[in-house]
From TrEMBL:
It comes from Atopostipes suicloacalis DSM 15692. This is DNA mismatch repair protein MutS. Transmembrane segments: none annotated. GO terms for cellular component: cytosol. Residues 725-752 form a coiled coil. ATP binds at residues 614-621.
Length: 880
């Protein structure tokens, strides 16, 4: 709380009034050339930003904690606060202190948040900076998001919390917005799982004009989505308090129109973030990104996040990639031109936002100057009209190029307030001011030379400062050489004296008047030029999207050429998968000179499930991942790491690979594994891809084996999705005999002189053993441990031979259940009417339990379903 129970100065009273409206933000309060922070803001900022903490009214009974940052370097401090998840309210002096009657008027002119930051280090050139809003409505969730730096505005409708989380995490949203007091449960869950900032808006706030809202949402028809767009746009209007003319029309999309995968799949496949260190290195994005522009880099990431499922659109992209591969020299020239294109999207955003400077406009001009060359290169590659659709859309926006060329100096200063921005000849009045300034400065040079000659003082100089204006400076050693009355003394310094003359003051008035008028006129001209460019923002944004698309396609061509990728072929009338000599694009890229062992994948001719066995470290997980990555790359429109690939169109990818606890939610590896498995088998369709890596390993052996078998049966009998399932439970390989669409494959390994050598090659059939002890040897375990493990292994294998584990069939299960029920009924009689299996009194539950047990006899349940039903019965009886 701010201490307002004592009397304060009018300026501090003004501060309190403004701060009360922005209690959750750092208030940067403008005082002259500094932004000052007071009280808790000052104390906290001094710690976060390493500022000196001082105090206002030091001699008062309760001094006010204070810290400040210079106005001209404030952006760096703001960036650091935003990067740490804080918000900053910028309070400016909104009237000239010279004209103010009493206290200078101050207002908050912008609130900068992690999701609304427009410039500085918090904005990364190859990443979008998304602000998202969520609205919960009955059984649906409306999601809208915007990148204020580019103007992109999109919205969709989702149907579960899991989908909401996955969409937000995939977009890497920087700030999530809700209405105050709504969606409490969803908010809590997202706050637990997402490392992002959460903000809230009062539902009564209507900051955006209704007509502006109508214009931006004109193409949105879904009544569920419009309210969340209103939430998002009202928040923008309330925090930014300026023109948002660069916002693009809201685009409504459906996630089912793209290849769907969850955030867990993104993580497990390392699409954009490495599991090792959280960076981009070692990810699919890292391999594919050879884009030359910032907007191309962002578009590549969005294509990776949402691969296509429309075969026509995929083929269109692949046609253009193939075209580029066939035009090496043109592609080289294209890359050179693209390298000279700056971030058109964000330059357009800064123009609309009013934060663009003269150097930004020069970047815009130089970017636009590359467009005619890009058009010419694309035209040379336009064999059989491959590029017709795109070529007809490219608009070089030459009017903007010509305007900036005529108006703006090639090497302007950063500041737009100090002149030297506008070219000579652009404005007649400005040229006249400059002529007066030039003549005046020539007069000063001549005056200095004349006074040196007449006084004989060789180091006499004519100088200038903002306090005294122009002056003549003479060192004290030469003062005796100045005749009395020649100059009027103005200032005494330690080693010199400063003088003026009436003529000098008259010329000062001329020069400074011309300079002040010149700077004011230059600023007016610059604002007018900026407004003229602003009229063409929509054209520039459209051009930016087309250039980004060209950039991503050339990146695909470059990567495909360097890594010997091939064009995949899609078929619509079959779900068969046939990949010859497929490779993992990232692993192969990292290995470099080492030889990567390619592998075939065949899920055709009635095979839906590949059951993969083999030792640890032999490449099972890599094999599974490479299948998913090849499919994702193919549906992005890229070529793939294989000598041949014939694929169907997949609708979803589920991948449970690797062991990872969810420490934030307090879930163990096994619980995470079960949750992800449940999500996969509950949502997959026959057009989906499932990857399961050693499901069941997180629990006891028999439990894990039972779960694994049951899951395989469920996928085989009820889902029908293409599935790769790796396991160390060799007993599961017997499933091939009774599941007609399951096939065993294994990774080969051989022992040479007691050492294990991995072949990394997939072969038909099952592995004969797991080589666990040999893998432990490779890991460097002590010899004594390895020897003891070998001895124990022999003993265990002998025991297993005496009483082997035999996988059951549904019929076997029925017999076992009959026998077990008979034994339990006998046991009930022996126990005198007590149901020892479940607890509880048999007489109270006999009819219900017998009814449920009979269901086990007549229903074709998997072992997992049977276990679940028995557990439910047990819980019911215990509750009752």
């Amino acid at each position: 709380m701010l201490p307002q129970d004592t009397k304060h100065t009018p300026m501090m009273e003004q501060y309190f009034e403004i701060k009360n409206e922005y209690q959750n933000e750092f208030l940067f309060f403008r005082l002259g050339d500094f932004y000052e922070l007071f009280y808790e803001d000052a104390i906290k900022a001094s710690q976060l930003l390493e500022l000196t903490l001082t105090s206002r009214n030091k001699n008062a009974k309760e001094p006010i904690p204070m810290a400040g940052v210079p106005y001209h370097s404030a952006q760096g401090y703001i960036d650091r606060l935003i990067e740490q998840g804080y918000k900053v309210a910028i309070c400016e002096q909104v009237e000239d202190p010279k004209e103010a009657k009493g206290m200078v008027k101050r207002e908050v002119v912008q609130v900068i948040t992690p999701g609304t930051v427009m410039q500085g280090e918090a904005v990364h050139e190859d990443e979008n900076n998304f602000l998202a809003a969520i609205l919960e409505k009955e059984d649906a969730y409306a999601l809208a998001y915007v990148d204020l730096t580019t103007g992109e505005l999109r919205a969709t409708k989702l149907h579960s919390k899991a989908e909401v989380y996955s969409e937000i995490a995939g977009l890497e949203v920087k700030e999530v917005l809700f209405y105050d007091g709504e969606s409490v449960e969803l908010r809590a869950e997202l706050e637990k799982r997402l490392g992002t900032v959460f903000s809230y808006l009062n539902k009564e706030v209507q900051a955006m004009k209704e007509e502006t809202f109508q214009e931006l949402t004109d193409e949105v028809s879904d009544g569920t989505i419009l309210p969340v767009l209103k939430l998002l746009l009202n928040y923008l209007a309330k925090t930014q308090m300026r023109s948002l003319d660069h916002l693009q029309l809201a685009e409504q999309y459906d996630t089912s129109h793209y290849l769907v995968f969850t955030q867990e799949v993104r993580r497990n496949l390392e699409l954009t973030t490495s599991l090792r260190d959280g960076s981009r290195n070692g990810t699919l994005l890292w391999v594919l990104d050879q884009t030359k522009t910032a907007m191309g880099g962002r578009m590549l990431k969005s294509w990776l996040d949402k691969p296509l499922i429309n075969i026509h659109e995929i083929n269109q992209r692949q046609d253009l990639v193939e075209n580029m591969l066939n035009h090496f020299f043109e592609r080289t020239d294209l890359n050179e031109s693209l390298t000279r294109v700056y971030d058109l999207e964000r330059l357009a955003g800064r123009v609309a936002y009013g934060t663009v400077n003269a150097r930004d406009l020069i970047q815009l001009k130089r970017s636009l100057q590359q467009i005619p060359q890009i058009i010419e290169i694309i035209s040379l590659m336009n064999v059989d009209g491959a590029w017709d659709g795109l070529l007809h859309q490219i608009d070089p926006v030459t009017e903007v190029t010509d305007l900036i060329e005529r108006a703006i100096e090639e090497e302007p200063p950063i500041s737009i307030m100090e002149g030297e921005i506008i070219k000579d000849g652009f404005n007649t009045q400005l040229d006249q001011y400059r002529d007066a300034m030039t003549n005046g400065k020539q007069w000063l040079a001549e005056l200095e030379a004349k006074e040196r000659q007449e006084t004989g003082i060789r180091n006499l100089k004519v100088g200038f400062n903002k306090v005294f204006g122009y002056f003549i400076e003479i060192t004290k050693a030469n003062l005796d050489r100045v005749e009395e009355g020649r100059y009027e003394r103005k200032q005494t310094l330690t080693n010199s004296e400063r003088f003026i003359t009436p003529e000098l003051k008259e010329m000062e008035s001329t020069i400074l008047g011309a300079e002040e008028k010149s700077q004011a006129l230059e600023y007016e001209l610059f604002v007018a030029i900026r407004d003229e460019v602003k009229m063409e923002i929509e054209r520039i944004q459209k051009l930016a999207r087309l250039v980004a698309q060209i950039d991503v396609l050339q990146s695909f061509a470059q990567v495909s050429e360097e890594n010997y990728f091939t064009r995949p072929v899609f078929h619509e009338d079959s779900q068969d998968v046939h990949i010859e000599e497929g490779r993992h694009p990232v692993v192969e890229h990292v290995m470099k000179e080492q030889e990567y062992v390619p592998n075939d994948v065949s899920l055709e001719e009635g095979t839906d499930i590949l059951l993969i066995t083999g030792p640890n470290m032999s490449g099972k997980s890599t094999y599974m991942r490479q299948v998913a990555l090849i499919i994702i790359m193919a549906q992005m429109g890229c070529f793939v790491p294989a000598t041949k690939a014939e694929l169907p169109i997949f609708d979803q990818v589920f991948a449970r690979i690797g062991a990872m606890d969810d420490l934030i939610s307090g879930q163990s590896t096994f619980m995470v594994e079960m949750n992800e498995t449940n999500q996969a088998i509950s949502n997959a369709t026959p057009n989906s891809l499932l990857l399961f890596d050693e499901i069941g390993r997180g629990t006891a052996t028999y439990d894990g084996m039972a779960l694994a078998e049951s899951i395989i049966e469920y996928v085989h009998d009820r889902v029908g999705a293409k599935t790769l399932f790796s396991t160390h439970y060799h007993e599961l390989t017997a499933l091939e005999e009774r599941l007609e669409r399951l096939e065993n494959i294994h990774v080969g390994a051989v022992e040479e002189d007691g050492d294990l050598v991995f072949l990394h090659k997939m072969s038909p059939g099952s592995a004969d053993k797991s080589y666990g002890v040999q893998v432990a040897k490779l890991a460097g375990l002590p010899t004594s441990v390895l020897n003891r493990a070998s001895t124990i292994l022999v003993e265990l294998e002998k025991k297993n031979e005496d009483s082997p584990i035999v996988l059951g069939t549904p019929a076997d299960l029925e017999v076992e259940q009959d026998e077990e029920k008979s034994k339990k009924e006998d046991k009930v009689e022996e126990d005198g009417g007590q149901l020892s299996l479940f607890g509880g009194t048999w007489s109270e539950h006999e009819e219900k339990v017998l009814e449920d047990l009979k269901k086990l006899d007549v229903l074709n349940l998997t072992p997992l379903e049977a276990m679940n039903l028995l557990n439910e019965l047990q819980n019911k009886l215990q509750d009752e």
